[in-house]
Automatic annotation (TrEMBL):
It comes from the Bacteria. It comes from Schleiferilactobacillus harbinensis DSM 16991. This is Uncharacterized protein.
Length: 53
């Protein structure tokens, strides 16, 4: 038994935009956590995602 799923370009573009936005928000949060950790524990930096401006 299979299920067919159809997505048009608009749907895919919207999903991609949402994923990029959430990834940027996560990176910002991780940067903030990293700064707090460095301040308190001198921890190792978190690797950065490549920037695609």
């Amino acid at each position: 038994m299979s299920t067919n799923v159809t997505l048009d370009v608009t749907d895919l573009t919207s999903l991609l935009h949402q994923a990029i936005t959430q990834a940027k928000q996560l990176q910002t949060t991780m940067n903030q956590v990293n700064e707090l950790m460095k301040g308190q524990f001198g921890g190792a930096p978190i690797p950065q995602l490549p920037s695609r401006s």
